[in-house]
Design brief:
Elements (H helix, E strand, L loop, with lengths): L4 H15 L7 E9 L7 E9 L2 E12 L1 H18 L1
Length: about 80
């Protein structure tokens, strides 16, 4: 069985960072439902990329939704994320 680069880095990075005194923080992805700026009755779904407490990126996935649709989409994305890892 061949070891991929991704698997090798996943195993080695915590040890290397500890050796050199750096703390490696695993990047995370979160999904949120937020109100839109132009109309507070409409909602949007955003994907937020974090490294620790620092937001490294934000991507808008859906916009102009009713609240229940936005919350249902967020629940679906979060459950898919849990089953994927």
């Amino acid at each position: 069985m061949a070891i991929t680069r991704k698997q090798l880095l996943k195993e080695l990075m915590p040890g290397l960072n500890k050796l050199f005194g750096m703390e490696y923080i695993e990047p995370t992805t979160e999904y949120h439902a937020r109100r839109t700026n132009h109309d507070p009755t409409l909602w949007k779904v955003v994907e937020v990329h974090r490294r620790g407490k620092v937001v490294t990126g934000e991507k808008e996935l859906a916009t102009d939704l009713k609240r229940n649709r936005a919350q249902a989409l967020v629940r679906l994305l979060r459950s898919n994320q849990q089953h994927g890892s």
